[in-house]
Amino acid sequence: MEPTTIQVAVPRPLHAVYDYKVPADIDPPRVGARVRVPFGRSRTVGVCVARHVANPHPKLKAIDAVLDADAAIPGELLELARWMSSYYHHPLGEVLATMLPAAARKGAEFKLDPPPAWIVSERPFANGRAKEQARLHAYLAEHGPVADKKIVELGFSRAVLRNLAASGSIRRAQFEPSASEAALTPTAAQSAAIEAVVAGLGHYRPILLEGVTGSGKTEVYLQAIAASLASAGQVLVLVPEIALTPQTLARFQRRFDRVGMLHSNLSDHERLQTWLRARNGELDVVIGTRSAIFTAFQKLSLIIVDEEHDSSYKQQDGLRYSARDLALKRGQDHQVPVVLGSATPSFETLHNAAQARFAHLKLLERAGGASMPSYHLIDMRGQSLQDGVSVPLQHVIRKHLSARGQILLFLNRRGFAPTLLCAACGWQAECSDCDARLTLHQQPAGLTCHHCGLKFQVPATCEACGKPALMPVGVGTQRTEEALEKLFADIPIIRIDRDTTRTNNQLEAHLAKINQGAPCLMIGTQMLAKGHHFPNVTMVGIINADAGFASPDFRAPERTAQLIVQVAGRAGRAERAGEVWIQTYQPESAALVALIEQGYTGFAAHELGQRRAMDLPPERPMAMIRADAVQPELSHQWLTALLEAARRDASLQPTETLGPAPAPLARLAKRHRYQIMLIAPDRRALHRALRHISGLARANPPPGDTRWSIDVDPYDTL
Ligand code: ADP
Ligand code: ZN
Ligand code: ZN
User: I want to staple 190 with a disulfide (CB 3.0 to 4.6 A). Which of 60, 71, 112, 186 is the partner?
Assistant: First the structure.
């Protein structure tokens, strides 16, 4: 009999699907099972994607082993992988490798840890002489299920637990029930939103839930989840990287018993355990960051994407997928509602809502009666500055401090100053490996490249003219902190950025101090901007609104406005109304005025008009082809040749190509970067062009150390 031949997707960039034969002594794997195969001179773990492929090649290699009796990747996810491979123009084997938890990718056995808790079994406890065992048995009878860890904390020895378990009078059990909190009484707007989601259960229904910060979106999620669990479903909740804190998890655990968490700070083993439990149907709710979108479920009934505009949903290297977009795709595949929540929806989502492809629900008021902050501009032209803090801003700060309010100042720039300039000749300190200026830091003093991470000593004199005329230009959070210390000597100042706050514990310590409620000044980057609840903040100051709007990236205004609104959302969250003060040198800027006078909605309408006029997304679909190499001209030449060859074919026709041009950050970590931008009249044309170009690129791979990539729906064009 002919040996079975299978097709295996391996995590390699080129073709990624190869035929192998299955030796007679191995049972052929199911489609979706992992197999260990020889590849080149090494071995790798791949996924069987088809069986009984006809391939009479006599030298076909044989697989080493089948790792799963069943499919590791259920059929639905395999279909999703195929779809992603064609949508993102990425090899199937690498897509599958991205989907699998790291441990599974490395070949780990799919074995669940024993359940973490203990309860009494049906068999009575009969060893009256073992006093400690009797005590533990009685405790479990009253309190179980109780986790191993808790038992040890209560002072029982491991031996007592072991002996009691051996007697058979206790057994392992799943999760300790954690739900203890009742639902809040929803407001009318919340009720309408909950009903809309519940009415959509059992169907694909994308819903934009636009709700100002503090309007009670999370309560809507919680009650919609409860309704969907009532019919034995499972729910996936995606949250931004920065938002998956122990508090977020706790909030869900107070409502639901079987909640699992997936994020990058877990060990590979922990991630695999949660993934397997969701796949088995042992978890009701999985809450996770971007890659949690690849969780397998028994019966998915609802998907929620919180802060759907957040950049962390887009993977920026390798397989450049958007978890938000994949949530919609999975919602379609499973026929379940997908709730996209945000105070500042992405333009893509607003566009879809405007085209009536998404339902659009609004929560316009804050829950619990808190009012929305008022916005004010500070015209910085001609103002005298104290390290970034203008005199009018100082006045407002004093006013709020004397009313015993807390103040949050936002500046999205770490370090002391973004530039070190020679006042004599104009030289600026630049990174040796990037086309970028170095940021001056103090304590410890040094120059740091915020792009590649290189550090340099601060020169005593100018490297160009030798004069001792170096001066810091511009402000970062360190400099503002110093200025505030001088201006407000008796007020505690708390700086929160990646330099002061590297760990979760440090962040917790800062937040605990703030939440004591005494007047204080906070200065921080976007670390401070998102998610936190500061009931005593009555004023928010934006130190520099202009930098974000000025970036060459077409999404910069959208991103900047989202950040400003998110930061502003920290003010006046409790009974005291808040004020937002924005420093700008461009008080007449149409974007800024729209934002101040009409809020995010008005701003978005204005900006979407600009995007439309310029044929940019979301009006037109876009993709980028990027290439970089250490040798300056290498990637440029390859991209030029690629585009020339591609243009010979009519299939490129309706799609506009721009470039190859140097990336705005033209050199990064010694590599010279070039890019081609593609803008198409519709998705079909875009994909036709990309298929054509990627086919040519794979047939004529770039020389030397050149790396190249395709980015469909790029988030970042820098
Ligand atoms: P969002 O997710 O929109 O920022 P949250 O769900 O965190 O808002 O709600 C903000 C605050 O309002 C929380 O303290 C929450 O407990 C409270 N809240 C939400 N809904 C209600 C309600 N229906 N009644 C009373 N308080 C509510
Ligand atoms: Zn000089
Ligand atoms: Zn650098």
Answer: 186
Bridge partners of 363?
Answer: 211
Handedness of CA 152, 157, 162, 163 (dihedral sign): negative
CA of 673 to the centre of ligand 3 (A): 13
What Rg do the C-alpha atoms of the chain give, in angstroms?
A: 29
What is the C-alpha separation between 384 and 370, in angstroms, rounded? 35
Lowest mean pLDDT among 374-383, 402-411, 569-578: 569-578
The dihedral built from the CA positions of residue 56, 61, 62 and 65, taken in this order, carries a sign that is negative
For residue 405, the model assigns a pLDDT of: 93
**CB distance 327 to 338 below 8 Å:** yes
Give how far the C-alpha of residue 56 lies from the chain's centroid of Cα atoms, to the nearest Å. 46
Say how far apart CA 299 and CA 463 lie, in whole Å: 65
Q: In angstroms, rounded to a whole number, what is the distance separating the alpha carbons of residues 152 and 145?
A: 14
**Length of the chain measured in residues:** 718
Q: With 80 as the cut, is the pLDDT of residue 599 above it?
A: yes
CA distance 214 to 365: 8
Angle at 688 between CA 683 and CA 692, to 5 degrees: 145
pTM: 0.92
Tell me the C-alpha distance between 54 and 648, whole Å. Answer: 35
pLDDT tens digits for range 539-550: 999 999 888 888
pLDDT score at 223: 97
Q: What is the distance between the alpha carbons of residues 240 and 245, in angstroms, rounded to a whole number?
A: 10
Sign of the CA dihedral 132, 133, 134, 138? positive
CA-306 nearest atom, ligand 1: 2
**Structure-block tokens of residue 220:** 């809507």
Across all residues in the chain, what is the average pLDDT? 92
Structure tokens given for 513: 């101090």
Q: Which range, 4-13, 314-323, 502-511, has the best average confidence (pLDDT)?
A: 314-323
Dist. CA 417–CA 487, nearest whole Å:
19
Residues 6+ apart with CB under 8 A from 226: 183, 255, 256
Q: What is the pLDDT of residues 650-660, one digit of tens each?
A: 778 889 999 89
User: What is the spatial distance between Cα 307 and Cα 209, in angstroms, rounded to a whole number?
Assistant: 10
Query: What local confidence, expressed as pLDDT, does residue 369 receive?
Result: 67
Q: Which of 113, 116, 127, 131 is nearest to 168 (CA)?
A: 127
Ligand sitting nearest the alpha carbon of 533 = 1
Q: How far apart are CA 673 and CA 706, in angstroms?
A: 10
Residues with CB under 5 A from ligand 3 (ion): 431, 433-434, 449, 451-452, 454
Q: Please indicate whether residue 389, judged by its CB atom, sits closer than 6 Å to ligand 1.
A: no
What is the reported pLDDT for 248?
A: 85
Cβ neighbours for 257, distance < 8 A, ≥ 6 positions apart: 175, 177, 178, 179, 284
Query: Quick check: 537 and 573 in contact, CB under 8 A?
Result: yes
Q: How confident is the model at residue 525 (pLDDT cuts 50, 70, 90)?
A: very high
Ligand nearest to the CA of 452: 3
- According to DSSP H, which parts of 583-681 are helical? 590-613, 634-647
Mean pLDDT of 262-270: 90
Q: Can you tell me whether residue 222 is helix, strand or coil?
A: helix
Q: CA-CA distance, 271 to 289, in Å (whole number)?
A: 12
